[in-house]
Amino acid sequence: MMVHVELGERSYPIYVDTNGLPRLNDYLGRHHLVDRLYIITDENVRSLYGETMLRSLRDAGRGADLLSVPAGEGSKSFEQLNWLYTQLLEKGADRGSIIIALGGGVVGDLAGFVAATFMRGIRFVQAPTTVLAQVDSSVGGKVGINHALGKNLIGAFHQPQFVLIDARTLATLPEREVRAGCVEILKYGYIADRDFFQQIAANLTALFALESTIIESALRTSCSIKADVVSRDERESGLRATLNFGHTIGHAIEAATNYKVYLHGEAVLYGMQAALYLSHRAGTLTKRLLDESVALFRQFKAPRLPDLDECALLAAMQKDKKRSARGQQWVLLHDIGRAYLTREVKEEWVREAIAFMKS
Ligand code: NAD
Ligand code: GLY
C-alpha cells in the first residue's frame, strides 16, 4: 500500500508495508538509490533492527555502515550532530551518499538534519519504528535538533526519497509509547476526518494491541491526511498549522515538566482536552462532544496532571508565543473533522481550560 506526497519534483511515496523492512534493498533499487548507505539509528533500535538491516544490506552487496547515538531526546543535540558529521567524513561519505534514518522521531529528526546539511544536502530515507514516527515525524520533511533555549529551534525542511513503514517493528515498542503515539492518530481524526475518528474511537483497544487490520488502516489513513496537508502547505503558512491541534498546551506541559514526566503524545492528549474546552468556550463545539472526548481520553491512561503549576504552564506558553511574530495561534474545532485557526482566545479561557484539563 502506498501513499503519495505530492510536492512537485520533491514528491515521494510512503510505503505502508508490514514486514517491509527486510525488503529495504528492493525499495532502494526501485528508487535507483545505489550509492553508499549510512544507517543512522539509536542504541535501542540498533540491536533490535539496525544490525540485521546492516547485515542484509551487506549480504546483498551494498556498501553500508551503521552509526548509532544514545536513545532519547538528548541526542537531538549539536554534540551528536557534530559526531555524526565526523563519522561520515572519516568513513568517506560524499555528496552521493544516502542516509537511512532508522528509529523513532528523535533519529528521524536528527538523521534528517544531518542529510539536510551534510555537503549542502544529501538524499535520505525514513524508516520509522515508533507509532509517532510512522504517522507523523517521518512524513513532511521537518528535520532538526534542539537548542539549550528550546526544542526544535534549529532545523530545515528536507524531504526524504521515500518513507518505509513496517508495522511489525511496533511489536517491540513499550506499551506506553504505543498509546502515546496513538494520540497523534486520533488527532488526525479530530482535525480532518470524522469517519476515521469514529473508527479509531470504536477500536482503541485493538489499536493499542496493534491488531494488524486496525493498525495498518490507522497508519495508512493518518499518513494520507498528513500527506495531503503537507502537499498543500509544505512550509506551514496556514493549513499545516492545524496539525498542531493540542500542541500549544501540550508543548507547554512538556516544557514546564522539563520533558521528564510526560511522553509527547500524553502531553498532546491533555493539550487536545484543553483545545476542545476552548472550542466549546468559543461557541464552536458542543458540550456533548467535549464530554465524550474526555471519556475517550481516559482510555489512554496518561499520567495524571494535578500537580502541574498553572503559572509554569502560562510562562512556557508565553515563551513560545514570543517566538511567533503574530502572537499565539490556536487550533480549535467547529466539529470533529473540522479544525480552524484563531488568535481570538482570551487568557481567562486559557486559565479555565487548564483547570478543566487538570480536573
Ligand atoms: P524516540 O525517537 O525517542 O523513541 C522513543 C523510544 O522508543 C526511544 O527510547 C527509542 O529508542 C525507542 N524505540 C524506537 N523504536 C522502537 C521499537 N520499534 N521498539 C522498541 N523501542 C523502540 O521518540 P518518538 O516519540 O518516536 O519521537 C519523538 C521526537 O519526534 C521528538 O523529538 C519530537 O520533537 C519529534 N517530532 C518530530 C516531528 C516532525 O514533523 N519532524 C513531528 C512530531 C514529533
Ligand atoms: N508535526 C507537525 C508537522 O509536521 O507539521
Please give the structural blueprint.
Blueprint: E1 2-5, E2 12-16, H1 24-30, E3 37-42, H2 43-59, E4 64-69, H3 78-90, E5 98-103, H4 105-117, E6 123-128, H5 131-137, E7 142-147, E8 150-157, E9 163-165, H6 175-192, H7 194-202, H8 204-208, H9 212-232, H10 247-256, H11 264-281, H12 287-298, H13 310-322, E10 330-335, E11 338-342, H14 347-358
Parallel strand pairs: 2-9, 3-4, 3-5, 5-6
Antiparallel strand pairs: 1-2, 7-8, 10-11
Glycine (GLY) binds next to loops.
What does this molecule look like?
Helix 5 packs parallel to helix 9 (212-232). The chain is an alpha/beta fold. The chain is built from 14 helices and eleven strands. The protein is 49% helix and 17% strand. The model has no long low-confidence stretch (mean pLDDT 96). The strands form four sheets. The protein has a four-stranded parallel β-sheet with strand order 4-3-5-6, with helices on both faces. It has a three-stranded mixed β-sheet with strand order 1-2-9, with helices on one face. Nicotinamide-adenine-dinucleotide binds next to helix 2, helix 4 and helix 5.
